[in-house]
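During the no-cost extension, the postdoctoral fellow (Dr. R.K.) reprocessed legacy sequence entries with the updated structure-token encoder. One reprocessed record is reproduced below for audit purposes.
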Amino acid sequence: MAQGDRKKVTLKDVSKASGLSLITVSRALRQPETVHADTRARIQSTIEEIGYIPNLTARSLVSQRSDMIGVVVPILASSLFADFAQGVSHVLEPRKQQMLLAVSDWSPKKEEEAIRTFIARQADAIIVTGFSHTQTARKLLDSFSGPVVEAWNLRDNAIDSAVGFDNYGAAVEMTRYLIERGYREIVMVGGSSVNNDQAEDRRRGFVDAMRGAGRSVDEDTIVEFDNPATIEGGLSLVKSLFARKRRPDALFFLAELPAHGAMLWCISNGVRVPDELAIAGFGDLSLSALLPVPMTTVQIRGRAIGECSANLVMERLEGGANEPVTQDIGYHLQIREST
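Re-encoded structure tokens follow.
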């Protein structure tokens, strides 16, 4: 039979195939606790046999809930954001909620389009990454009737709730650590801070810590790489930095993958880490502790950020506290041999 000729399986078909009344079948799906276990099993077996799929749109009109949570991440290439999405899913799945996942590629416009789609699809809540939104996206989130969580950073201008860590403070602490270790030529390597409040806060933290220690910050002190951050980008970048007349003695990467690339370049070219060049990262991916020279880094708990974000929206949706919440997941300097 051609696909267009296939007949849609309805609740009446389930009733007929199971030999049970339409009322009983409907009640088993809407209020399963009111139907005998054997009858529920019979209905479920019939549903699986004939391929019936309930109309969730119709059900949501009655319940005023779609059981869908919209989530926007900038990329999935980084395991940190994959861990974040996994944390959200881990909380939603037992509650029979579905995660609608969108990837913005660090584009506020793409984030705005995803938010529009979530609202059009009647999402019950929306979780976004960071605070860098278009004006339109912010208006959409401001007027959205469900819970909103801005994740991965902490700022005073949250639309609703926020779950993350102090990106500024983490950069300050790592920079001060490198200064206290006696490194003189420290170079910060980070992605563009345009439309990326996390990168902006990390960069600001580095600059403030350097100037607070009486260190100069000029065009040679801060180097930007193109988003998304890659291992290959770190390889080529450290090669050019090491060719400078005034070589850096420490590199602070504001993302982990290019830091890995820098480490691999040093190992391949006989540059001793940390004796000739110290390397610090930001993120603590699983490989960082397993490198030939284990890497010093800022440890971020991406999965915990996802779980906390999802728990916040579910508490609100299930009738809990209705006030906005700011949850600081924290960070940790993971000091290893690379510095």
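The mean pLDDT is 90. The chain is about 45% helix and 15% strand. The remaining legacy entries will be reprocessed before the final report is submitted.
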